[in-house]
Amino acid sequence: MPEKRNVSGPPANGSASGGNTYTIDLNTFSRRLQALYAHWRRHKDEYWGSSDVLAVATPPPSEDLRYLKSSALNIWLLGYEFPETIMVFGDEHIYFMCSQKKASLLEVVKKSAKDTVGLDVIMHVKAKNDNGSNQMDSILQAIRSHSKLDAPTVGYIAREAPEGKLLEIWSDRLKGSGLPLSDISNGLSDLFAVKDKNEITCIKKAAYLTACAMKNFVVPKVEKVIDEEKKVTHALLMDDTEKAILDPVKIGVKLKAENVDICYPPIFQSGGNFDLRPSASSNDDYLYYDSSSVIICAIGSRYNSYCSNVARTYLIDSNPLQSKAYEVLLKAHEAAILALMPGNRASAVYEAAISVVERDAPELVPNLTKSAGTGIGLEFRESGLSLNAKNDRVLKAGMVFNVSLGFQNLQAKTSKPKSQNFSLLLADTVIVTDDGRDVATSASSKSVKDVAYSFNEDEEEELPKAKVESNAKDVIFSKATLRSDNGEISKEELRKQHQAELARQKNEETARRLAGVDSGSGDGRAAVKTASELIAYRSVNELPPPREMMIQVDQKNEAILIPIYGSMVPFHVATVKTVSSQQDTNRNCYIRIIFNVPGTPFTPHDANSLKNQGAIYLKEVSFRSKDPRHISEVVQQIKALRRNVMARESERAERATLVTQERLVLAGNKFKPIKLHDLWIRPIFGGRARKLTGTLEAHVNGFRYSTTRADERVDIMYGNIKHAFFQPAEKEMITLVHFHLHNHIMVGNKKTKDVQFYAEVMEMVQNIGGGKRSAYDPDEIEEEQRERDRKNKINMDFQHFVNRVNDLWGQAQFKGLDLEFDQPLRELGFHGVPYKASAFIVPTSSCLVELIETPFLVISLSDIEIVNLERVGLAQKNFDMAIVFKDFKRDVMRIDSIPSSSLDGIKEWLDTTDIKYYESRLNLNWRPILKTITDDPQQFIDEGGWEFLNLEATDSDSDNSAESDQGYEPSDAEPESDSEDDDSESESLVESEEDEEDSEVDSEEDKGKTWEELEREASNADREKGNESDSEDERRRRKMKASGKSRAGPISSASKRTKFR
């Protein structure tokens, strides 16, 4: 896969010292030269072909992408490539043959070579027009003369064909010298296999660039192409991706463009033509993204000539075979990565992968690639480090591998030719560490949820049928009910079909849940508050000495000393209910103290009152004084002391109910905390001190928010987070991250399940001038631009923080928590009143939230039983939403005053998220309804479950519905008699639930009676026959309908019903 490259510019690892000159890192040169000689001498016979001299020649510069061991040795040893240079390493000398300019650069290595390995460096300078044959003869003569052997063995890279006139002459001279030759390729491969710290850093930077290119450019680009149904060729995607890699800043990577390059032209494959070899290329076919299609994307980038690679497969509306094959491949790939440990053999990596395939999908073994990847570094494929079943090479810390695994030429049963043949490929750059491995390209996700897409709306609409495949025969809809006049299925009809199936599923689910729940019994009274015994003084001796017979406040013992009959009687301040003062016209001041007394309304149950039920309590006392200042001071002291004591006791009681959290493990040297600065917190810390911004840090197992004050600190464990949200500022004044927790925590002295951190995107600036400013005022325009820039910067800072935390949560140890920042879907939002004020409520993928106004609204969709849309009618401008939770002991959540224009959008959203909803014309009183359900769940199940809320079913069950639906039909025929029609109508108006059988009785005597008389007669008849006709079930049903404010009017309420609807 050659490609023309621009080789001008600074070489890797070189630093400019002025003009076009570059310096060599002498420390690195010395260290690696010593490593070269040590490895050569130690493994001379094993890897270096028993060579006595090493001769390496580099070809002339080329614009083609190529990987040569001669060039790799130049870069590894000297920092960058020296074209048309011959290097000869002997026991006593090192010879360089090159041009004058290169020789001047290499002069600096003479002293380092002498100091490090005790060798002299000799330069043979070739003139510009000279072919170099004389210098070559001099070098070969020197090899013979300085060797202890008559014919020293010369090692060279046999696999590299000579390029250019200079190397061809050198090859001829070497072969014609009569000296024995041997191949040193294996020695160089083993030398490069274990990377040092600087090399690992370069590979990590290259891998981060590669992963970010895939995540931030390739995936959004392909998604946009599919979403907009564009026709884009693989070659065009290749060109755009290459440009993105060569300009790292555009994809959010802060690396210098002159230090980066591609490893190979990016590969895009789809439409049935797949080649999993690294030499594959992107053709000129259009990207194919129809149903059951597969897209393979592979990109590799270099930093300072060190390579990295990543490959991902994306499934579009995948069929079962594709989904299963990808899941198996993902497991096999993870198993191969886990097998990369120091001490393991290279063959164990491939064996780990193939064992997974043999266990989970043995039929796919023939399609598995024959290797799990190769070593990677200065060369894209390092020979000798292939991860196949035959390689017994022992893995060492510092080795780096391109773990690449795939299934090729799989066949799917589909009518689309381009989807029949498909392949799958996954690749990651993995570094072997002392204690395991490090996946350097983990920023690019390969989990099923991130690579499987569903863009086919038609197939999505058929999902309800697929979801209940086993019960599909129970629900059969005719074409007449599913298709409109033009033959298309309308959205409303599809929604009704889906809702009908959801109703059945919901009733079955509720029945199973209620069958295993004991509703228990209770008196509805709040649990008795357990409080410690209120003791101000344990003995009389602890009382302070009386100064005067005046009311005193003892702050230390939290008591009030009141003079009663000449003695100072102490009362704990917690026994005080209220204290007040007033002044009359005679300048007399009165203080009135009212105490908590058991039995009075709104007095909480207390353990002390229940313990001393036979005691006599003082309800209130009043005192008169001539000193208004003293009275006012006492009142303020009592109120302040009572407020502090109550706050302390409340906080203590709340802390006593908290679930014990694990301790926060702070990030160490290996893992720096992810930080977001200058944030405010809600709920705010207590106290009257000036509020300060703080910093949110992501550590090993949780977040920590802290300000400069030592007592203002909050720890949030990852394991306690139920939902995490990120909401950038668009029309709001703040950008925020919000955490909804499983268990309460304390923020200051407040107990909460919701913690929010936010930054204000607008500066609070007030225009004092008062006059209107022109829209074309330069200052106004500049100020607006400054505000936009500030908002964009804050949003980007938050987005970067969220992305990094999501990457952290994607690691193996956090997969069980299933954490990921969710972002509200504004296009699905609607206005409503969840508490006291109107707010903009927005769905997310898993919740319904309102995160701007307090108190916050966070409702998990998984907790919702059903939703009832109330006050829905043609004449209504607003309607209400009642959310019933699966926990029937939890109060129903109401969102009121939702504009009717949002009704269709809400119904569509509820249906899409598989939430059963009902509609009613009136608001229901839900507490009695839920109590009736929990008291007798079996009765609720037997009578149809939630279908008593079904407005359409209720209307269709009415006896008079057929007549009312007929409407007015004009006719020329004269009625025979009006009296008969009037009679039958009168009978239908007054007949009771038990009188249907007697409906033929003549009602002539009832003519002319008022509604009140008819109602009174009907009620008397019901009372006389109530014991005979009214069963206990019917009375319970009437009670439920009465408590629920039934929608039915006078006529429908009189019709006979046997089920809740």
UniProtKB/TrEMBL annotation:
Residues 830-920 form the Histone chaperone RTT106/FACT complex subunit SPT16-like middle domain. Keywords: Chromosome, Coiled coil, DNA damage, DNA repair, DNA replication, Nucleus, Transcription, Transcription regulation. SMART domains: FACT-Spt16_Nlob, Rtt106, SPT16. Residues 502-525, 955-1061 are annotated as: Disordered. Gene3D superfamilies: 2.30.29.150, Creatinase/methionine aminopeptidase superfamily, Creatinase/prolidase N-terminal domain, FACT complex subunit Spt16p/Cdc68p, Pleckstrin-homology domain (PH domain)/Phosphotyrosine-binding domain (PTB). Residues 551-705 form the FACT complex subunit SPT16 middle domain. Residues 24-188 form the FACT complex subunit SPT16 N-terminal lobe domain. Signal peptide: none annotated. It is found in: Nucleus; Chromosome. The keyword Cell division does not apply. Residues 971-1005 have a biased composition (Acidic residues). Residues 502-512, 1006-1028 have a biased composition (Basic and acidic residues). CDD domains: CDC68-like. InterPro entries: Creatin/AminoP/Spt16_N, Creatinase/aminopeptidase-like, FACT-SPT16_Nlobe, Fact-SPT16_PH, FACT_SPT16_C, FACT_SPT16_M, Pept_M24, PH-like_dom_sf. It comes from the Eukaryota. Component of the FACT complex. Belongs to the peptidase M24 family. SPT16 subfamily. Component of the FACT complex, a general chromatin factor that acts to reorganize nucleosomes. The FACT complex is involved in multiple processes that require DNA as a template such as mRNA elongation, DNA replication and DNA repair. During transcription elongation the FACT complex acts as a histone chaperone that both destabilizes and restores nucleosomal structure. This is FACT complex subunit. It comes from Rehmannia glutinosa (Chinese foxglove).
